UniProtKB/TrEMBL annotation:
It comes from the Bacteria. This is DUF6090 family protein. The chain crosses the membrane at residues 21-42. Keywords: Membrane, Transmembrane, Transmembrane helix. The keyword Transmembrane applies. InterPro entries: DUF6090.
Length: 271
C-alpha cells in the first residue's frame, strides 16, 4: 500500500502536475490523521473496556468484604447482648441486698465481663484500589463516596470496642484481682462463649480439668457491696447498649450499600 502511494506521488511530480500533487498530499495527510484518530479511538475503547473490568471486579470483591463484615457484626451483636444479660443480672443482685448469693452462680455472670472484642473491619479491597489509583477511572462516584463513608464511620464502633476493653482492664480487673478465680468452670465458660469468642472453649476445658482442692470461700458479698463494682456495671451496660445501636446503624448502611452495588453490577454486566 505504501509503495502504491509512492508511485502515485512520483508520477504526479514527474508529470509536473503540481495542483494535483498538492490535492493528493492533502488527501494523504487526511488519511494519516484519520488513521491516527481511529487508532486512538481503538486504544480508548480498549482502555475503557479494561477499566470497566477492573471496576466490576472491585465491586464484586467489595460485596465479599461486606459479607465478612456482616458476619463480624452479627458476632459483635451477640457479644454485647451477652454482656447486657450478665451485667444486668449482676446489677440486680447488687441492688437487692439480702438476696441469696451463690458464689458459683455469680461467677457465671462475672466471667463473661472479663473479655473484650476485637476491632476489625474488612476493607482490604477498598484500601488496595484506593492506593492503586483505580478510583479515578470508575464511573459511579456516588457509590465510591458511600463506600468511603461506610469505612470512615467504623471509627464510631471501634471506639466503643476499645473503651469496653480499656474499662474492664482498668476497672473490673482491679476490683476482682484480690479474689481467686476458682469460680471458672466449663459451665461458667459456656456463658462467655459467643460466635465472636467461640475459639476459647479449649481454654475453659483446660482450666476446668485442673481440680481445685483448696475449698476457698467465695467472698462475693464483699464485691457486690463495693460502689466501684456497681459503677462498672452501669458503665458497661451503657457502652453495650451504645454498641448495639452503633452496630444496628452500621448494618443498615451496609444493606443499603449492598443493594446499590448489586444494582450497579447488573447495569455493568449488561454493557
Amino acid at each position: 500500500m505504501i509503495r502504491f502511494f509512492r508511485q502515485i506521488r512520483h508520477r504526479l511530480i514527474t508529470e509536473n502536475k503540481f495542483s494535483k500533487y498538492l490535492l493528493y498530499a492533502v488527501g494523504e495527510i487526511l488519511l494519516v490523521v484519520i488513521g491516527i484518530l481511529i487508532a486512538l479511538q481503538v486504544d480508548s475503547w480498549n482502555e475503557d473496556k479494561q477499566n470497566l473490568k477492573v471496576e466490576r471486579v472491585f465491586y464484586s470483591d467489595i460485596l465479599g468484604d461486606l459479607n465478612k463484615d456482616s458476619l463480624k457484626l452479627e458476632g459483635l451483636t451477640q457479644f454485647y447482648k451477652n454482656r447486657i444479660e450478665n451485667a444486668g443480672w449482676l446489677l440486680r443482685k447488687v441492688r437487692t441486698p439480702g438476696s441469696i448469693v451463690d458464689g458459683r452462680e455469680i461467677g457465671k455472670h462475672v466471667q463473661p465481663l472479663y473479655l473484650g472484642a476485637s476491632s476489625i473491619t474488612y476493607n482490604s479491597t477498598y484500601e488496595a484500589s484506593k492506593s492503586s489509583g483505580d478510583f479515578a477511572y470508575f464511573r459511579n462516584k456516588d457509590i465510591l463516596k458511600n463506600i468511603n463513608q461506610y469505612y470512615a464511620d467504623f471509627g464510631e464502633l471501634s471506639g466503643i470496642l476499645t473503651a469496653t476493653t480499656r474499662w474492664l482492664e482498668t476497672s473490673l480487673e482491679p476490683i476482682l484481682s484480690t479474689y481467686p478465680e476458682n469460680y471458672i468452670t466449663a459451665e461458667s465458660g459456656s456463658y462467655v462463649l459467643t460466635s465472636e469468642l467461640d475459639d476459647l472453649s479449649e481454654l475453659f476445658e483446660f482450666i476446668t480439668a485442673i481440680e481445685d482442692t483448696r475449698d476457698l470461700p467465695l467472698e462475693i458479698e464483699n464485691i457486690l457491696k463495693r460502689p466501684e463494682f456497681e459503677n462498672y456495671l452501669t458503665g458497661d451496660l451503657g457502652r453495650s447498649f451504645n454498641a448495639l445501636a452503633s452496630i444496628e446503624r452500621r448494618m443498615q448502611r451496609m444493606e443499603m450499600l449492598k443493594m446499590e452495588i448489586v444494582t450497579y453490577l447488573e447495569e455493568l454486566n449488561q454493557q
